[in-house]
From TrEMBL:
It comes from the Bacteria. This is AMP-dependent ligase. Keywords: Ligase. It comes from Desulfosarcina widdelii. Residues 8-386 form the AMP-dependent synthetase/ligase domain.
Length: 530
């Protein structure tokens, strides 16, 4: 089983069924598969080598999906890159990857022209609706429409032309390189095989009970592992994807969910914070008649957001909390919605096919109730980081994948996380988990989002500082701190609190703690110059 078989199998079952809805585009499985076949044939004709890297730099769209499956059909390695990259971020990735082909759109032409495209092996650039003039001696430039209109020669005695590409790869071959966000260091390219992704997608389809009747709203980018997982799982069951790239205007998302009879919605914690406080979700509660489940992953979500979500969503809509990592092809645990109220602070149990252990510093499994590092094993776990054996050795060993998360397991087998192994802040002799302080700030019900960082301090070593997105424009920092004081001991109270319109985030919606810290550092430097 290969990743592109998800598309091919659903095409055989539902050739005329709607597969993708994006703005004015409404494409069937047959149309997606035919375009992907033609792109694959074009790539093979361009001498794209088996195992060669093909970069995708596009927003979520019909064309992105065609590019993704077309690359895999051709035996290539799909490398989706963040749409937030600038030339100084793109250049080292291209030098490291040495792609043979880049597939992009007009939106990123200026970025590409400002970048160094003179890298080994790169010979083809495919752009959807190019707008700029291109003069590039080492590259052949093609319109995306040209590449997906390529007529491959017929294959004799083969009634199923999609099978013509299968001999180019197998389940052990590399399929994707997905870069981590890099918020805590240099981005690392996580290598995932066909077998990794297929195993994880099959498991997700099983525990979420996905079906061809499901209609999934996608607001997360496909270059993010959770977004890619939504694509593969829905295509695996023959469902429909509704792509919406306008989450900055959440009212449009709610309206489209109603219009398209969406059954599934997925997001990271900030997605739900903004739906609760910056969208008409509550007033449209009775109109979301088809929404059967919302799922959350991408980091810790505060209890206050979970309880508010439960109160705001229709009673019949299930809430599924999940936990995972790029290194796990997306997913490691899930909290069955039936346990939501009883185990609201838990990330649940291991998904089918995954084994999770809580290990101490010596690699021994700890008893229930004791803390240790969460270590995962299973067919979904990465083979390592692209061109980085040292980083690979730090997280992969005989025990499995070391997540870096500290947690414990209760007597019923549910796992609870206590934060990152490397994320504790030492303030005045105390070790503080910033997650606990952030949860308290949100529990005041006066904040939409909060991020706590440790700012260098001569006396304390570090002092707790918080960036907060206030719920109302007339909110005062003193009011938040006063309510927070009833929830936290004095030594865990932030020494300063600064309001911002939005927290700095990576392109996948996760809070960028490095940039949050920069906000305070820049202020200190500015003050020292005055």
């Amino acid at each position: 089983m290969l990743i592109h078989h998800f598309l091919e199998n659903s095409t055989k079952r539902f050739p005329d069924k709607l597969a993708v809805i994006h703005e004015k585009t409404r494409a069937t499985y047959g149309q997606v598969n035919a375009a992907a076949d033609q792109l694959a044939a074009f790539l093979v004709n361009r001498s794209a080598l088996k195992g060669g890297r093909v970069v995708i730099l596009m927003e979520n769209s019909f064309e992105y999906i065609v590019a993704y499956y077309g690359i895999l059909k051709a035996g290539g390695v799909a490398v989706p890159l963040s749409t937030d990259l600038k030339p100084d971020g793109l250049n080292p990735l291209l030098a490291e990857l040495e792609p043979t082909v880049i597939i992009s759109s007009a939106r990123f032409e200026r970025l590409l022209q400002a970048s160094d495209l003179n890298v080994p092996n790169l010979n083809t650039l495919i752009i959807q609706n190019p707008k700029l003039k291109w003069v590039c001696d080492n590259l052949s430039i093609f319109n995306f429409q040209q590449a997906t209109s390529y007529k491959q020669p017929p294959i004799q005695n083969n009634p199923q032309p999609t099978n013509q590409f299968n001999q180019r790869t197998n389940e052990t071959n590399l399929a994707n390189i997905i870069y981590t966000s890099g918020s805590t260091g240099t981005p690392k390219g996580v290598m995932l095989t066909h077998g990794n992704i297929v195993a994880n997608a099959d498991s997700i389809c099983q525990y979420l009970q996905l079906a061809d009747s499901d209609i999934q709203m996608v607001v997360l980018p496909f270059f993010y592992v959770m977004g890619q997982s939504l694509l593969n799982t829905i295509f695996a069951v023959g469902g429909t994807l509704v792509l919406n790239n306008k989450f900055a205007f959440p009212a449009t998302v709610i309206n489209q969910m109603i219009e398209e009879k969406v059954t599934l919605f997925s997001g990271v914690p900030s997605t739900y914070a903004y739906l609760l406080h910056r969208s008409p979700l509550a007033t449209n509660k009775k109109r979301l008649t088809n929404l059967r489940m919302v799922t959350q992953a991408g980091g810790h979500m505060a209890r206050s957001i979970k309880t508010a979500l439960r109160e705001t969503l229709p009673a019949r809509t299930q809430i599924c909390i999940m936990y995972g990592a790029t290194e796990a092809s997306a997913r490691l645990t899930w909290l069955d919605p039936h346990w939501f109220d009883q185990k609201i602070d838990s990330i649940g149990r291991a998904i089918p096919g995954v084994i999770l252990k809580i290990l101490d510093a010596n690699g021994a499994e700890v008893p229930s109730g004791e803390k240790g590092e969460v270590v995962a094993s299973g067919p979904n776990i990465t083979r390592g980081y692209w061109m980085d054996p040292q980083a690979t050795a730090r997280v992969l060993d005989d025990h499995g994948y070391h997540t870096g998360d500290i947690g414990w397991r209760d007597e019923e087998g549910f796992i609870f996380l206590e934060g990152r192994k490397d994320n504790l802040l030492k303030v005045g002799g105390h070790r503080i988990n910033p997650q606990e302080v952030e949860d308290a700030l949100l529990a005041t019900e006066l904040a939409v989002e909060a991020a706590v960082v440790g700012v260098a301090d001569e006396l304390l070593g570090k002092r707790l500082s918080a960036l907060v997105v206030p719920l109302n424009g007339d909110a005062a920092p003193e009011a938040i701190l006063e309510k927070c004081a009833a929830l936290l001991p004095k030594y865990k109270m932030p020494s300063e609190l600064r309001f911002v319109r939005a927290l700095p985030k990576n392109a996948n919606g996760k809070v960028d703690r490095g940039r949050c810290l920069d906000v305070f550092t820049a202020e200190v430097q500015r003050t020292s110059r005055l």
